[in-house]
């Protein structure tokens, strides 16, 4: 039998005087000293600075967005975004390491900390946004489309009723197809593949009637075929595909920095500040707006954990959004993708940078 010994009575608590109680309550509201472990909002930027370079997850190869050349140098709109981020932090667009990510592995790489930011033609959706990820800004507005042979005579997506369609696994395309065809009472058959190379190969070999993915990617895929002129991209898009860089949740400072890197490139374009004239514009800033963007007024860079000239660094090394679009996707490139929805808001597009002020 266990004997329970009585405990000695505790002395009654002494009541604090009203003034002392008030001071104690206020003390509990005082923030922890700076020597405490840094909050998550400080961690990614601090880690990137300590490492000396950014680690960016990109697509293994999507023409115009992220493609390595024979020497391993990456180019593309997503690549330019990562270089702009590195330029803002280090004043060096080369201070970035690119790690290609498959569709299936990209989110795991971000969550595990293998990469600092995912800039890989990734669609912003609710389910992804609530799965420990944040999407700071839309860098490219796209939509799902179809590549078909001209010989089929198909001019609209409804002409693909009862067709076989090739697509890549691990993307939003299969769900979009199901929604669009079911809503219209049409039927189809899907053949899926692990990557874009296999998908295009199956399409070219005749295993399917159409190849479906983001319209921007189809421009590059068509150029890879043996006879590009024999294929056409249907004008109709069946979905909204807002591409956005991904960051981990719980890191507000890093999220803000990634978002404002894109917004700065848009604001610079709208203000007429480009790679060709940014030095002159800084020396003779024509307006308060330009002075704020280029860090001549205010402490906006400091709010992001950067220097005052962070936008000047971005534009000098990489250019504004229009510079990057023209260099990677525009009429001077083999892709010749229309600016369309990705034009500035005051030029009929959807791209809109909040003001730096």
Automatic annotation (TrEMBL):
Q: Has UniProt tagged this entry with the keyword ATP-binding? A: no
**Signal peptide extent:** 1-36
Which Pfam families does the record match to this protein?
SBP_bac_3 (PF00497)
Q: Report any one BP term from Gene Ontology.
A: amino acid transport
Its keywords, alphabetically, are: Signal, Transport
Family the entry assigns: Belongs to the bacterial solute-binding protein 3 family.
- Listed name of the protein: Amino acid ABC transporter substrate-binding protein, PAAT family
């Amino acid at each position: 039998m266990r004997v329970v010994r009585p405990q000695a009575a505790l002395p009654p608590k002494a009541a604090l005087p009203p003034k002392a109680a008030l001071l104690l309550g206020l003390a509990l509201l005082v923030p922890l000293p700076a020597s405490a472990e840094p909050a998550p909002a400080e961690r990614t930027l601090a880690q990137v600075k300590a490492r000396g370079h950014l680690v960016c997850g990109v697509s293994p190869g999507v023409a115009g967005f992220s493609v390595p050349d024979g020497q391993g140098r990456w180019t593309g709109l997503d690549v330019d975004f990562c270089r702009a981020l590195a330029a803002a932090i280090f004043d060096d667009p080369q201070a970035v390491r690119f790690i290609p990510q498959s569709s299936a592995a990209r989110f795991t790489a971000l969550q595990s900390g293998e990469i600092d930011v995912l800039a890989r033609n990734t669609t912003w959706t609710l389910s992804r946004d609530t799965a420990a990820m944040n999407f700071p800004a839309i860098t490219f507005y796209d939509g799902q489309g179809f590549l078909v042979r001209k010989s089929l005579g198909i001019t609209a997506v409804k002409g693909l009723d009862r067709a076989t369609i090739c697509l890549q696994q691990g993307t939003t395309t299969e769900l979009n197809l199901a929604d669009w065809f079911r809503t219209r009472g049409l039927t189809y058959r899907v053949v899926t593949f692990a990557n874009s190379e296999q998908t295009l190969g199956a399409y070219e070999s005749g295993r399917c009637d159409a190849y479906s993915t983001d319209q921007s990617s189809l421009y590059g895929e068509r150029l890879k075929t043996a006879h590009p002129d024999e294929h056409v991209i249907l004008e109709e898009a069946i979905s909204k595909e807002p591409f956005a860089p991904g960051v981990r949740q719980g890191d507000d400072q890093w999220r803000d920095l990634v978002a404002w890197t894109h917004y700065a490139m848009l604001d610079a374009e709208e203000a007429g500040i480009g790679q060709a004239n940014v030095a002159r514009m800084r020396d003779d800033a024509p307006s308060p707006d330009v002075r704020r963007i280029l860090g001549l007024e205010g402490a906006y860079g400091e709010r992001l954990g950067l220097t005052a000239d962070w936008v000047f660094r971005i534009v000098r090394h990489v250019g504004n959004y229009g510079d990057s679009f023209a260099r990677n996707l525009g009429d001077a490139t083999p892709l010749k993708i229309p600016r369309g929805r990705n034009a500035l808001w005051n030029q009929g597009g959807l791209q809109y940078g909040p003001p730096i002020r």
